[in-house]
Amino acid sequence: QVQLVESGGGLVQPAGSLRLSCAASRSGIRPRAMGWYRQAPGKQRELVATITYGGRTTYEDSVKGRFTISGDIAKNTVTLQMNSLKPEDTAVYYCNLEYYNGVTYWGQGTQVTVSS
Known about the structure:
The protein is mainly β. 0% of the residues lie in helices and 53% in strands.
């Protein structure tokens, strides 16, 4: 069993920045990718950004140019730098880890609230 521990959420004003971090409790098995998803009240969970072991990144359209994902996938760590935050970015953000065999793990979620 792998546990993902997230940190860095909180309350920030519009146009502000936050940095989310995630680390897995176990390393040694190489993941296919790690990433961040989010779920706003009344909405489905959606992909925010992912990064593969090879370093390829994917972003949801609304965060391109504002969010940056980085990480040391071999060490099972991933970070999401969020700049120019908007109220519509408010959601619970979940860290995700996927192995090559399709097994996926989720973090417990961290709240991000963008409000003045």
